[in-house]
C-alpha cells in the first residue's frame, strides 16, 4: 500500500493510501480465507492494520477514518481520480455504510431484501 501510494521517495499520497486500506479491509472481511485467515482472526488483523496505518495516516482509528473519507466528496473525487471500477466503488461505499452507520445500514439492507422478494 505504501509503495503504491508513494508520489516521490519521501512523499506519500494519503488519500490514495486510504483507498488501498479501505479496499484491503473490505476484501479481508469478505473473504478472510483467501489469505488463510479465519473470521476469528479479523479482530487481530484489524488491530495490526490500524497500528501500521497510524504510522502513515495518524489518527485514532485509521480504518474507520478511511471509510469516512470514502463517504466524503473528497473520497468520491479520489475514487474517480484513481479510476476505480463501479464495482470497486460500490464495494467501498457499501462497507462505508456498514462501518459508519450499522443501524441505518441494517435498515437499508432489510428494505432491499424486502423489495427484492416482492419482485420474485
Name a few traits of the molecule:
120 residues; mainly alpha; two-stranded antiparallel sheet
Strand order of the largest sheet: 1-2
Order of helices and strands: HEEHHHHHH
Q: Radius of gyration from the CA trace?
A: 16 Å
Question: Gap between N and C termini, in Å?
Answer: 42 Å
Number of helices: 7
Low-confidence stretches: none
Helix content: over 70%
Based on secondary structure, the structural category is mainly alpha
Give the biggest sheet: 2 strands, antiparallel
The count of DSSP E runs of length 2 or more, i.e. the number of strands, is: 2
Estimate the global geometry from the Cα principal axes: globular
Beta-strand share of residues: under 5%
Overall residue-averaged pLDDT value: 88
Describe this structure in a few short sentences:
By secondary structure, the chain is mainly alpha-helical. The chain contains seven helices and two strands, in the order αββαααααα. 72% of the residues lie in helices and 4% in strands.
Walk me through what this model shows.
The structure is a single chain. The chain has 120 residues and is mainly alpha-helical. Helix content is 72%, strand content 4%. The chain contains 7 helices and 2 strands. The protein has a two-stranded antiparallel ribbon. A hairpin with a 2-residue loop joins strand 1 and strand 2 (11-12). The longest helix has 17 residues, at 14-30.
Secondary-structure map:
Layout: H1 2-5, E1 6-8, E2 11-12, H2 14-30, H3 42-57, H4 62-70, H5 73-81, H6 86-100, H7 102-118
Antiparallel strand pairs: 1-2
Helix pairs in contact: 2-3, 2-4, 2-6, 4-6, 6-7
Amino acid at each position: 500500500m505504501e509503495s503504491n501510494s508513494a508520489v516521490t521517495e519521501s512523499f506519500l499520497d494519503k488519500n490514495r493510501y486510504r483507498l488501498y486500506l479501505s479496499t484491503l479491509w473490505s476484501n479481508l472481511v469478505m473473504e478472510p480465507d483467501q489469505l488463510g485467515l479465519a473470521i476469528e482472526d479479523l479482530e487481530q488483523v484489524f488491530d495490526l492494520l490500524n497500528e501500521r496505518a497510524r504510522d502513515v495516516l495518524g489518527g485514532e482509528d485509521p480504518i474507520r477514518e478511511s471509510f469516512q473519507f470514502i463517504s466524503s466528496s473528497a473520497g468520491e473525487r479520489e475514487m474517480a481520480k484513481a479510476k476505480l471500477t463501479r464495482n470497486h466503488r460500490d464495494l467501498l461505499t457499501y462497507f462505508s455504510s456498514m462501518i459508519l452507520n450499522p443501524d441505518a445500514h441494517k435498515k437499508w439492507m432489510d428494505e432491499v431484501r424486502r423489495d427484492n422478494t416482492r419482485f420474485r
